[in-house]
């Protein structure tokens, strides 16, 4: 989530005189000190919290899946890749904070590298969320099909993950090509295109909105709606708990991602229509973009909580990890003296005469 921001083409006096007849009511240069001052304080504070919490949560997911658990299902593979994507995206946040505070001081090469890394993991994160929704749909609604394909699920999940990463790299090519350091009040790392290339920029922006919200939201809405209908027909004791988890997943996704997607969409349509705004409106939109983008970054903190810690087995594995870390600091204590916590609690339900264990809500 979080998403990418672009420096829209700003009119200069030469461009106006050459391409227009009367822009006397539009200010050529806005005083943007207030939005910039807000960004210098707000963004680093929010991003610091997101960075710390997100790093801790996603590192726990990676350690748990690589040390304490084997990858036994498609969900396991997708969750591991989602944690990796979020972790790599989080590594770009300190650079973003530094850019907001005193400008970009890391040079062109790191500018391209950081923005490309952010873009790849932004796209891959949402695509893995989409894959998780589809996998859970198959596991619950198409339980018989899922059972027949059980021996090949790991292979399919690895192929799907490889395709997700390839698609994400392909969609990030504009960032790799056109990101550079530009001089305004300070040096900043941005993706800059000529005005003639506005279709490229518009396509990139709309791809962000589509992949960053509408695609995963549409898939989640469909899959979880059908899953909910299937669960309502079942006789599982924890049916209501599972439905509550589904509701929370969709609600939080919309709450944190929709505002920035709307702001980004409006920004793109304004730019395509060459719509110029007065300084107050432009400043308000800059502030709205900063706030909603920061909300979108919170997704990196929530993914481990929503898709990992909600599972009984995963929580037990985390407790085992914490216990082993405590044991390592006590040489007189044998860490292997105790067996791992029990992870036998699983949510199951009966549908169409078949009992299906849901790896979705008891990971």
Can you tell me about this structure?
One of its GO terms (biological process) is immune response. This is C-C chemokine receptor type 7-like. It is found in: Cell membrane; Early endosome. Residues 57-307 form the G-protein coupled receptors family 1 profile domain. It comes from Acipenser oxyrinchus oxyrinchus. The structure is a single chain. This protein is mainly alpha-helical. It has a single domain (31-339), classed as Rhopdopsin 7-helix transmembrane proteins. Helix content is 70%, strand content 5%. It contains 13 helices and four strands. The protein has helices at 13-19, 33-68, 74-90, 93-102, 107-141, 143-148, 153-171, 173-178, 198-233, 239-272, 279-297, 299-309, 312-328, and strands at 179-183, 187-191, 348-351, 354-357. It has a two-stranded antiparallel sheet. β1 and β2 (187-191) form a beta hairpin. The longest helix is centred in the first third of the chain and has 36 residues, at 33-68. Mean pLDDT is 77; it is low at 1-28 and 336-363.
């Amino acid at each position: 989530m979080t998403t990418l921001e672009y420096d829209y083409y700003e009119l200069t006096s030469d461009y106006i005189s050459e391409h227009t007849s009367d822009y006397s009511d539009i200010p050529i240069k806005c005083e943007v000190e207030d939005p910039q001052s807000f960004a210098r304080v707000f963004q680093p504070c929010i991003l610091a919290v997101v960075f710390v919490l997100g790093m801790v949560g996603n590192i726990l997911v990676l350690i748990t899946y690589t040390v304490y658990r084997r990858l036994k299902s498609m969900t396991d593979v997708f969750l591991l890749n989602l944690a990796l994507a979020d972790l790599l995206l989080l590594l770009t946040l300190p650079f973003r904070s530094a850019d907001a505070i005193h400008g970009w001081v890391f040079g062109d090469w790191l500018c391209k590298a950081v923005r490309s890394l952010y873009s790849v993991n932004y796209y891959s994160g949402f695509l893995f969320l989409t894959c998780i929704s589809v996998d859970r749909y198959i596991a619950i609604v198409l339980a018989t099909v899922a059972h027949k394909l059980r021996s090949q699920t790991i292979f399919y999940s690895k192929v799907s993950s490889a395709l997700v990463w390839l698609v994400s790299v392909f969609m990030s090519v504009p960032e790799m090509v056109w990101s550079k350091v530009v001089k305004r009040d300070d040096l900043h790392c941005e993706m800059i295109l000529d005005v003639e290339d506005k279709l490229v920029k518009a396509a990139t922006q709309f791809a962000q909105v589509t992949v960053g919200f509408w695609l995963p939201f549409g898939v989640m809405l469909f899959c979880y709606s059908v899953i909910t209908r299937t669960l309502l027909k079942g006789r599982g004791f924890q049916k209501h708990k599972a439905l509550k988890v589904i509701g929370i997943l969709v609600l939080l996704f919309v709450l944190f991602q929709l505002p920035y997607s709307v702001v980004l969409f409006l920004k793109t349509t304004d730019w395509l229509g060459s719509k110029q705004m007065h300084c107050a409106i432009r400043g308000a939109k800059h502030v709205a973009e900063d706030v909603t983008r920061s909300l979108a970054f919170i997704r990196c903190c929530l993914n481990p909580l929503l898709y990992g810690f909600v599972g009984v087995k995963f929580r037990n594995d985390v407790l085992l990890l914490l216990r082993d870390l405590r044991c390592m600091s006590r040489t007189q204590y044998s860490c292997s003296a105790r067996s791992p916590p029990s992870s036998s609690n699983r949510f199951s339900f009966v549908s169409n005469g078949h009992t299906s264990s849901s790896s979705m809500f008891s990971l």
